[in-house]
Design brief:
The structure holds two protein chains of two kinds. Chain A is an alpha/beta fold. In chain A, 37% of the residues lie in helices and 24% in strands. Chain A is globular. The longest helix of chain B is centred in the last third of the chain and has 37 residues, at 248-284. Classes of the chains: A alpha/beta, B mainly alpha. Chain A binds chain B through residues 82, 84, 87, 109-114, 117-118, 120, 122, 124, 126-128, 136-137, 140, 172-177, 186, 189-190, 193, and chain B through 166, 168-169, 171-180, 182, 186-187, 190-191, 282-285.
Chain lengths: 280, 285
C-alpha cells in the first residue's frame, strides 16, 4: 500500500494544477506531496451535473476541509475519492483523479477503499461487538493471525481515543455505546486497515459539542499519519481543524486555499459572503 | 375559568372509537381462545400419554394414539423447510440486493401468484410431478408440496427484512474494502438474521396445518413410515380422516389432534416472537 506514496514530480501536472498548487503553497513553504490530483472533473447523477470542472490538489498529510451550502457537490467529490458513488446506478465521472501518482480508476474499488477509508455522517456501527467492528476490515484480508488482529484492534481504538472507554466492554454490542463513541468506533474501524487517506463526511453533524471536540482532537492526533479530507457544514469546525479549505458552490470549486487565507482574506466575494453568514 | 379541555365532543369520539377498536381486538382474541378451549373440551378425553406414543388402534378397538402422525408431520415439515427455505432465502437475497427493475418485478409478481395458488392445486401438481413417476405416495412428495408452498413467504419475508437493513451499514462495509457479496454475507444478512429466522418459523407454522396438498402426496398411513419413500400419516390428514369417520372414539382423537397441532403452532409463533425480540435487543444494544 505504501508504494502509492512515492515522491511526486510536480512538472508532470498540467499547468492549471501547477498554478493552483503554487498559489496555495506560496514560495517559501515546502510542498507536501499531492495526495489527490483532480483534473477537469465532471460528475453526473443521470442528467444532473453535480460537479463542474473541478481542478484541485489535496495535499498529503494535511487536513483539507470542503465547505459550502447543501447540494453544492462537496460530499459528491468526497465520495468520488473512494469511488463510493459507483454503487449508485446512473452515475458518471469525466476527467481524471490521481491518487499519488496513480490513476484512481486503475485500482479495483475494493483495494482503493482500503487505502482511502471513509467515515459517514451518521454513526453506523455494524450490529456486532465493538471488537468485531474494528476487526472487520482486518479479517477481510484473511492473512492476519488472531493475536495480530487483537493487537491491531487495540492500537486502532487507542488512535481513535476510544480504548479507555471500551476496553472492558469489547465484546458487547457496538449499538450499546453513545453516538459520539459510535462515531469514534467508526473512525477506529477505518483506521484499523492503515489507510493513507481518511475521508470524513460531516462526521460531527449528529453529535453533541463534547463528542465533536473529542473527534476534532483525534483528527489533530492522526493528521501526521494520514491525509484527512473532511466535509463540514460547520464553519468554525473547518477553521479549527483544517489546514486547507475548498469552498464549493453549485457544483463548482470557487476557491481553494490555506485555511487562514480563506477565513481571513478570501479572494472571492462568494466565499466572503458564505463564511460571514450572508447566505448558505 | 376556561371551557373544559379537551372539549366534550372530542372526549365522546375518543370513547366510542376506543370501545370499537377494543371490541374488535376482543373478538379476534376470543375467536382463537374459543377454538383452543373447544378443541381441548372435546379432545380432552383422548388426550393422554398413549395419544402421543401409541399407533392408531384398529377399528372397533378403543385406545391407541397418533404417534405416527406426529412424527410424520415433523418429518414433512423438516423436508419442506430443507427444500423450500433455501430457494426462498436465495430468491429474497436476489430481490433485495441484486434484482433490477424488470427482473425484480417479474420475480415478485410470480411469487405473489405462487402464493395465491390453491393448496389443493399444489397437491395435484406434486402428485403429477413426484407421485406418478414413483408410482406411490411418500413423505418425499408431501415434503416437496409443503416446501413449494413455503417458497413465496420465505422469499418475501427475507426480502423485506434485508431491505430494512439501513444503507449506511452496506456503505460502511463497502467503504472498508469489502466486496458487495462480502458485505451482504458478513453484514447485511447477519443484521437481518433474526427477522429472517422469524419469517421462516412463521412460514413453517403456516404450512403445518395444510391438509389438501398432503391428501395427494403423503396420503396417510396407519403405521409408522420408515424412511422418506413410504406414505406417511400427518396430523392434518388424521384430523380430516377421523373427523369424517363414523366413530365417536375417532372424533375425540381428531379434536385432540387438532388441539396438539394448534398448540404446536402457538409455541412456534411465540418462539418466533422471542427470536425477533432478541434480534431487536441485539441491534439496539
Amino acid at each position: 500500500m505504501k508504494t502509492l506514496m512515492k515522491p511526486f514530480d510536480l512538472s508532470q501536472l498540467s499547468k492549471a494544477h501547477e498554478v493552483r498548487f503554487a498559489e496555495v503553497e506560496g514560495a517559501e513553504e515546502q510542498l507536501p506531496w499531492p495526495q489527490f490530483t483532480v483534473a477537469d472533473l465532471n460528475f453526473f447523477y443521470g442528467h444532473h451535473q453535480a460537479l463542474k470542472d473541478i481542478n484541485l490538489i489535496v495535499p498529503n498529510k494535511r487536513v483539507t476541509a470542503f465547505i459550502g451550502p447543501s447540494g453544492c457537490g462537496k460530499t459528491t467529490l468526497l465520495r468520488t475519492f473512494n469511488r463510493m458513488n459507483e454503487i449508485i446506478p446512473g452515475t458518471r465521472v469525466e476527467g481524471s483523479i490521481r491518487l499519488g501518482d496513480k490513476d484512481l480508476f486503475s485500482f479495483p474499488a475494493t483495494t482503493l477503499r482500503r487505502v482511502v477509508g471513509m467515515v459517514f455522517q451518521k454513526p453506523s456501527p455494524f450490529p456486532k461487538s465493538i471488537f468485531d467492528n474494528v476487526a472487520y476490515g482486518l479479517r477481510l484480508d484473511n492473512t492476519l493471525r488472531r493475536n495480530e488482529i487483537a493487537d491491531k484492534v487495540e492500537q486502532s481504538l487507542r488512535r481513535a481515543a476510544l480504548w479507555e472507554e471500551v476496553k472492558d466492554i469489547l465484546h458487547q454490542s457496538a449499538n450499546g455505546i453513545s453516538g459520539g463513541q459510535q462515531q469514534r468506533l467508526c473512525i477506529a474501524r477505518a483506521l484499523a486497515v492503515d489507510p493513507e487517506v481518511l475521508l470524513l463526511d460531516e462526521p460531527c453533524s449528529a453529535l453533541d459539542p463534547i463528542s465533536t471536540a473529542k473527534i476534532e482532537d483525534l483528527l489533530f492526533e492522526i493528521k501526521n499519519q494520514c491525509t484527512i479530507v473532511i466535509v463540514t457544514h460547520n464553519m468554525l469546525q473547518a477553521a479549527r481543524v483544517a489546514d486547507y479549505v475548498g469552498f464549493f458552490l453549485t457544483g463548482q470549486l470557487v476557491e481553494f486555499n490555506r485555511a487562514k487565507q480563506i477565513f481571513q482574506n478570501p479572494e472571492r466575494q462568494e466565499t466572503q459572503d458564505y463564511i460571514t453568514g450572508r447566505f448558505g | 375559568m376556561s371551557a373544559t379541555y379537551p372539549p366534550l365532543s372530542r372526549k365522546l369520539v375518543n370513547i366510542v372509537m376506543l370501545s370499537l377498536t377494543g371490541l374488535c381486538t376482543l373478538l379476534v382474541v376470543s375467536a382463537l381462545l374459543t377454538i383452543l378451549v373447544y378443541l381441548l373440551w372435546n379432545g380432552a378425553h383422548a388426550l393422554n400419554l398413549n395419544f402421543f406414543i401409541k399407533l392408531p388402534a384398529p377399528v372397533g378397538q378403543s385406545g391407541g394414539g397418533v404417534s405416527n402422525a406426529i412424527v410424520g408431520t415433523l418429518k414433512l415439515l423438516a423436508l419442506a423447510t430443507v427444500s423450500g427455505v433455501p430457494i426462498g432465502l436465495l430468491g429474497g437475497i436476489y430481490l433485495s440486493e441484486f434484482a433490477g427493475g424488470w427482473s425484480a418485478f417479474t420475480v415478485r409478481y410470480t411469487t405473489d401468484l405462487l402464493n395465491g395458488v390453491p393448496s389443493v392445486v399444489m397437491g395435484i401438481f406434486v402428485y403429477t410431478l413426484v407421485v406418478l413417476p414413483m408410482h406411490h405416495f411418500s413423505t418425499l412428495a408431501g415434503g416437496i408440496a409443503l416446501g413449494i408452498m413455503m417458497i413465496p413467504i420465505a422469499l418475501r419475508s427475507t426480502e423485506d427484512f434485508l431491505r430494512a437493513v439501513p444503507r449506511s451499514l452496506r456503505e460502511g462495509g463497502l467503504a472498508l474494502g469489502a466486496s458487495k457479496s462480502e458485505t451482504i454475507f458478513t453484514i447485511v444478512i447477519p443484521a437481518a438474521i433474526y427477522g429472517i429466522l422469524t419469517g421462516i418459523m412463521l412460514d413453517v407454522a403456516r404450512v403445518a396445518g395444510e391438509t389438501a396438498p398432503l391428501l395427494f402426496t403423503a396420503f396417510g398411513n396407519q403405521f409408522n413410515s420408515p424412511g422418506w419413500l413410504q406414505p406417511t400419516a400427518s396430523l392434518p390428514v388424521v384430523i380430516y380422516n377421523y373427523a369424517i369417520s363414523p366413530y365417536d372414539e375417532w372424533h375425540q382423537q381428531a379434536w385432540a389432534a387438532g388441539f396438539v397441532l394448534l398448540s404446536g403452532l402457538l409455541v412456534v409463533s411465540i418462539l418466533a416472537r422471542l427470536v425477533l425480540a432478541r434480534g431487536k435487543k441485539m441491534s439496539h444494544g
